[in-house]
Structures
1.
Amino acid sequence: MSTLSVSENIENHPRVKAVFDDIRQTRQTDFVNNMWRYLAFDPDLLESTWREVKAVMVTPSALDPLTKEMIYIAVSITNACSYCVHSHTAAAKSKGMSAAQYADLLRVIALAGKTNQLASAMQLPIDTVFTHD
Amino acid sequence: MSTLSVSENIENHPRVKAVFDDIRQTRQTDFVNNMWRYLAFDPDLLESTWREVKAVMVTPSALDPLTKEMIYIAVSITNACSYCVHSHTAAAKSKGMSAAQYADLLRVIALAGKTNQLASAMQLPIDTVFTHD
Amino acid sequence: MSTLSVSENIENHPRVKAVFDDIRQTRQTDFVNNMWRYLAFDPDLLESTWREVKAVMVTPSALDPLTKEMIYIAVSITNACSYCVHSHTAAAKSKGMSAAQYADLLRVIALAGKTNQLASAMQLPIDTVFTHD
Amino acid sequence: MSTLSVSENIENHPRVKAVFDDIRQTRQTDFVNNMWRYLAFDPDLLESTWREVKAVMVTPSALDPLTKEMIYIAVSITNACSYCVHSHTAAAKSKGMSAAQYADLLRVIALAGKTNQLASAMQLPIDTVFTHD
Amino acid sequence: MSTLSVSENIENHPRVKAVFDDIRQTRQTDFVNNMWRYLAFDPDLLESTWREVKAVMVTPSALDPLTKEMIYIAVSITNACSYCVHSHTAAAKSKGMSAAQYADLLRVIALAGKTNQLASAMQLPIDTVFTHD
Amino acid sequence: MSTLSVSENIENHPRVKAVFDDIRQTRQTDFVNNMWRYLAFDPDLLESTWREVKAVMVTPSALDPLTKEMIYIAVSITNACSYCVHSHTAAAKSKGMSAAQYADLLRVIALAGKTNQLASAMQLPIDTVFTHD
């Protein structure tokens, strides 16, 4: 159930096909997941979103790929984004996340959910040592 | 501005003092931040929260301490928990987070915030390859 | 799957029937969607909710009906309210939202999701030109 | 109070200066707000964020500029992003939002906040007429 | 800092004065808090919001006044609504919330924040015994 | 659909079996819901989570069991945690929540969702009478 339907022949559109081909080559798989198939309704949105995902998540950077996936999962869980939790948990596993790392990730995310509530409840004043201006 | 006031002499309470002493020894500093000073209104809540923070964030585990802080930051940002963002960003810096890592953290968190909105907007069906039952 | 069951004969209740009749006449359709069918378990809640929805969304006001639906969608997406995203996206389409407008809506919502994360991450001080006291 | 400090001479960095100059020219004002001044700690993040904001919010598109600001406000309110609510409410006023439109915006956002809670509470099944697959 | 300024003479407007008088009489105090003073920019919004708050929170109903305030606090904490946490925690205290009840409230809210994250992380299938259709 | 699969023989693990036995005895039922069956992938996480749920929700405390369930529901609805809304609404019903109480709960939660948006929209300054420092 979604708010859009995907056309049977989305890859007939040359800009869509170019993005899908780049996804397939980048990930070394024929599979293109629904995020991209549904975004294809607007080639601009498809292109700009894929360009950013590739730049942030695929291009080597200061954080390693698995750490980036776990941060992505943390945001997605907190936003209750079901699709995103599924897709990024799968991605983290494919990048080598062990069961022990997954359990640790859940422990930190759960603890943060808890202490965020406590800090919000008490409306804690921010310690001056934590600030910069 | 908070919903509680902190008593001048909170450390007169022996259970509060014991927790504060353990925080000071664990962190090798005399400073005890407001989270603990305000939680001290209920020694049970103070003890159980510190015990869990220590077990999850201090005890060596499958993820390294800096990765855990960055995951904590990701949840806190998404929950718009001002105190938590300040305290855990400071903690991550004290554990060695570089400016390049911080910029990378923000890039991933910002991108997740964006694609979470897109997935929620389109109500994407979950690809069967992402599921387990 | 819901937390309530809908009685077979909800319209036997005269206050429920009156609300459903008004929904049908206002929208010029026989269809009454699940929001109202489930709220019927408490006629007061049904009446007051419909009265407010009608006053805000149907009565002519400073913003046009399609703009109001898109604002409704923006809140619903951010709250990850699956039912609300579905029902208000359908409503916006029935009020003439084009594919180009929908893509633009998604672009703004996605960008806001991203920059909200950046502002929350950096805990930006509010520029004095933005404030009123 | 923020998690970063802004260097006195941020515009000495040529890439930062180029973005600031483009912001000033695009908005026809000397004022550069804190979002950009703090993002300048990482010129890549500054450039890519400004490029996207300019493309989505400044370039003419299917939705008019004021409608886009109101959608931005709706997301920011729902995310409790204080900085974003302030900056985009100011932007909407500068684009002509009247008091009557602002009141209407608040009415829709408040109603959506309310009915999102009701739909989430009852876990409403999605009416089949609202779906596409 | 807010997005509106409050006029010096807001009570010169007869509809605003009528609402403020009713707030004062209902609460048996001369004090009118900022929620109402700022909402006064639009008398319709002021009247309808006060009418609903009075009906739900003041009129005797199935739940007692203190329980309703604690539920209000729970939502406000989770939404990170700083003003709302402050005002409703003050209201709960004025209705007799003890320190032990406040600590218990925080324990439940914190635990829910934690287990919500775990359930969202694992994307748990809903047990059939919990559903109604 | 979940991010984990549950092993057929989870209760062969002695620590898992001990927790499940305690759940069954505490609740006086053979049924163990999915939260616990999925958490069993990590016995530490299972044990610590159940220990906390039992301490907060089962052990007699300042708030009665039904009030605690309604507060839990309020957080879960606001976080859009589908599983949690289902399980805690079922728990509240089993602890005697009447239809009138449920309607009242929804009225308060919906009103809080609405006024949280208004307070966040206007960025209300906190009245000094609400604060403690």
2.
Amino acid sequence: MSQPAQPNPTAAIIVIGDEILSGRTKDKNIGWLAEQLGAMGITLHEARIIPDIKQVIIDTVLDLSARCDLVFTSGGIGPTHDDITTDAIAAAFGKQVIRHPEAEAVLQKHYQNTDLEFNAARQKMADIPKDATLIDNPLSAAPGFILENVHVLPGVPSILQAMFEGLASRLPGGVVMTRITVQCATGEGTIATILANVQAAHNGISIGSYPWFKPGNFGTAVVISGLDEAVAEQAAEAVATAVKATGADAFIVAAGDTA
Amino acid sequence: MSQPAQPNPTAAIIVIGDEILSGRTKDKNIGWLAEQLGAMGITLHEARIIPDIKQVIIDTVLDLSARCDLVFTSGGIGPTHDDITTDAIAAAFGKQVIRHPEAEAVLQKHYQNTDLEFNAARQKMADIPKDATLIDNPLSAAPGFILENVHVLPGVPSILQAMFEGLASRLPGGVVMTRITVQCATGEGTIATILANVQAAHNGISIGSYPWFKPGNFGTAVVISGLDEAVAEQAAEAVATAVKATGADAFIVAAGDTA
């Protein structure tokens, strides 16, 4: 008996930090996480960058937590006064913040091996919402946590990435999308009707078109994505055939590429 | 009697595009716009990346348009079937989409100079919500628009940046700068030294350069900005004269344009 098709899990990313909104720091976490989630077959539905304001964090987390299967936050879990993510997420779900014994032990051990004092500010990083599950931090010890469907990660890209690597295998994976690129030696506007027709004729695929220009040359990369590999391949063939019929060159560069 | 202090205007950015959420394309517009707005004294309150889904665009635009003084969107205004931003924003404000005569004339003229047909798909880029104000596109002609407090820009970073340069001095909180464009029929790398020399020789101006390519043709739009109109005009003349001395055509397209 065949299983009913499960839709892919959905996700949202919330980047928390005034320094991103001011333009001083450029966010690198959305693009990186988007790529990881895509490769795992998890559909990223939305990403938001919000300020370090407790009520904004609470509202945003509750909104996206209700609408997506998984939420990932980045930023605001360090030792300083402006790190308010933990408090805000605990408040969002009506949980107390407790000094977490396991987190405290890990941090204590970490600071014993350094010249740094495990002072009150650093101890704050062991404060975790009650009932949360810790996310291991292989780089700098201070853990993240999971509360409900919200996965709380730090803002520093290298630490976020190392922590996500350990987290990834716990996440529900979807079916990885098949993505096929058809390189077309013609302008986007010339093949717009072809793309609309091919998309309409093939169920469950979506077609994006990305024009590119360089001196003396131009073209359009057409990306066909879909859960059903065979249908995506048929759609790619249909695009290539129809574009060639206009007199322009077209070739499939990544048939069967599921990355 | 002194005026009461005005709080800084607030802004939100909405990046519209499945290709950003899938991780295939990394967003560059949020960081760039955040920096520009910050330098102008406009407070960026939130940035969102959302999918190409009409109802999501409508809901997001209405939400942020009500909560912020200024909204900027990026993406989804090209010629293909997945470019639905214009329709969605018109629908959000209960406006019809009309074939805009000025936009149509600009596009028609643009495509006359190319091998590309001004076909139905490309004509779609002249469709603008009723009562919207056009935003000039010095690179690829297809205009953006302003409807209510929403500023609709394309997704390609170089085009978005060139269009924002022209828009910036119209925004509240922005210092009113003189901006002059010099269109140069040559590559950016060829005139880099000229631009550096002209900038060094003229106090208080800054020079941006935006290379553009179309089939069989390419050039560089040089944008000179400064608080002192006379100095900006001298710098524009200096750029045009020096570029012409290399044998390439150059002409000032917007002397004294403070828009």
